């Protein structure tokens, strides 16, 4: 309410409020100009926010985990992939006795729709499953020539959480099974745009190359100056085994005719070494038999002595005088040295007397 003031005659009069004085108007113009400059300086020193705050629409989440029995190299490879893929999730190791269909339930609990599963066998063979959970398709690979980030020590480097470019060999578009693998690799390895854990930068590239019926994976840094590529790591080779219609099973869509299992490969190597050993033993046995066999005497060939010229016969000389003995120079030198030493000793003894 407005303040009232009582009049003498008993009436009340309403007193109007005084207008508030604006602080900006009270300041002099020079000071007002100085404050505007300070505000501009503060805005210039302020750290800018994110480049773009868009909406996160692609909700791809990748589950990366393995079975029990993996070695240290596989464990480091899994950690490198999790670090390069900010949209990935981890889980505990799965028991080898469990069936692969259980992984679909694990993906559902983790709210993941893609999966990279490393399966170890015999503590020396490593298999990789790439699956679209829960409907499929899925592909099984044999992983070879693994080199991790810590092992390579390359000069390349990239920002953690940055989004990669995906580079594919032109051979991926020539055959249908490679086209299917290309789409599966794109959905798994590409980081979704505006992902909360990703950075809005593109500074490295994943390359997938087909050579010798295998897929070669490399990770390169993009240098800003001249767009040159410097390898970062990790690197590995995927040898395709089968492509299934479902997730971790189902009807077989494609089977690689060039694939050779590690057990068969080791068996071939053992058979080659065994064949070499058997060959050496057979050569030794043949040599022993040849030594035991009696020597065969060939009949004399009369034409063999046609070009033989007899040597001139020398007269036999009989020595009637005993030859002089040879002089041993070393013994003569020793005797002379002894004689000189004895004479020196006598002369020294005479001087002392």
Describe the structure.
With 353 residues, the protein is of the alpha+beta class. It has a domain at 62-264: Brix domain (Rossmann fold, 3-Layer(aba) Sandwich), CATH 3.40.50. The mean pLDDT is 85. It has helices at 23-26, 29-45, 72-84, 102-109, 149-152, 176-189, 262-292, 329-352, and strands spanning 4-6, 12-14, 62-66, 88-90, 114-121, 125-132, 138-147, 162-168, 199-211, 214-222, 229-231, 235-246, 249-255.
Short key terms for the protein model shown above:
single chain, 353 residues, alpha+beta, Rossmann fold, 11-stranded mixed sheet, two-stranded antiparallel ribbon, 13 strands, elongated
CATH topology of the domain at 62-264: Rossmann fold
Instruction: Give me the strand/helix succession.
Output: EEHHEHEHEEEHEHEEEEEHH
Structural class: alpha+beta
Tell me what the CATH architecture of the domain at 62-264 is. 3-Layer(aba) Sandwich
Using the CA coordinates, give the radius of gyration: 47 Å
Helix fraction, binned, reads: 25-40%
**CATH homologous group name of the domain at 62-264:** Brix domain
Q: What is the CATH top level name of the domain at 62-264?
A: Alpha Beta
Number of helical elements = 8
Termini gap: 150 Å
Number of strands: 13
What is the residue-averaged pLDDT?
85
Uncertain residue segments: none
**Gross geometry:** elongated
Largest sheet: 11 strands, mixed
Strand content bin: 25-35%
Domain Brix: 60-249
Family: Belongs to the BRX1 family.
Subcellular location: Nucleus, Nucleolus
Biased composition (Basic residues): 1-10
């Amino acid at each position: 309410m407005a303040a009232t003031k009582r009049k003498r005659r008993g009436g009340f009069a309403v007193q109007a409020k005084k207008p508030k004085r604006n602080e900006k108007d009270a300041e002099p113009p020079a000071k007002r100009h100085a404050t505007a400059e300070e505000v501009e300086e503060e805005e210039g020193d302020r750290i800018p926010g994110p480049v773009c705050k868009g909406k996160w629409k692609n909700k791809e989440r990748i589950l990366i985990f393995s079975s029990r029995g993996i070695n240290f190299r596989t464990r480091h490879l899994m950690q490198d992939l999790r670090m390069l893929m900010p949209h990935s999730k981890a889980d505990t190791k799965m028991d080898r006795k469990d069936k692969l269909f259980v992984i679909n339930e694990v993906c559902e609990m983790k709210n993941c729709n893609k999966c990279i599963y490393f399966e170890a066998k015999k503590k020396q063979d490593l298999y990789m499953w790439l699956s679209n959970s829960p409907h499929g398709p899925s592909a099984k690979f044999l992983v070879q020539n693994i080199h991790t980030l810590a092992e390579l020590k390359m000069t390349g480097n990239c920002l953690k959480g940055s989004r990669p470019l995906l580079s594919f060999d032109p051979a991926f578009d020539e055959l249908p099974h490679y086209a299917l693998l290309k789409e599966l690799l794109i959905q798994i390895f590409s980081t979704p745009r505006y992902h909360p854990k990703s950075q809005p930068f593109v500074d490295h590239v994943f390359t997938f190359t087909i050579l010798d019926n295998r897929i070669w994976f490399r990770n390169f840094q993009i240098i800003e100056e001249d767009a040159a590529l410097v390898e970062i790591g990790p690197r590995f080779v995927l040898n395709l085994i089968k492509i299934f219609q479902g997730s971790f099973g189902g009807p077989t869509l494609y089977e690689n005719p060039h694939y050779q299992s590690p057990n068969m490969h080791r068996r071939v190597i053992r058979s080659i070494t065994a064949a070499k050993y058997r060959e050496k033993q057979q050569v030794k046995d043949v040599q022993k038999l040849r030594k035991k066999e009696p020597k065969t005497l060939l009949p004399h060939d009369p034409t063999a002595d046609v070009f033989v010229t007899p040597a001139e016969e020398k007269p036999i000389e009989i020595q009637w005088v005993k030859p002089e003995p040879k002089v041993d120079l070393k013994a003569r030198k020793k005797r002379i040295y002894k004689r000189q030493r004895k004479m020196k000793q006598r002369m020294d003894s005479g001087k002392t007397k």
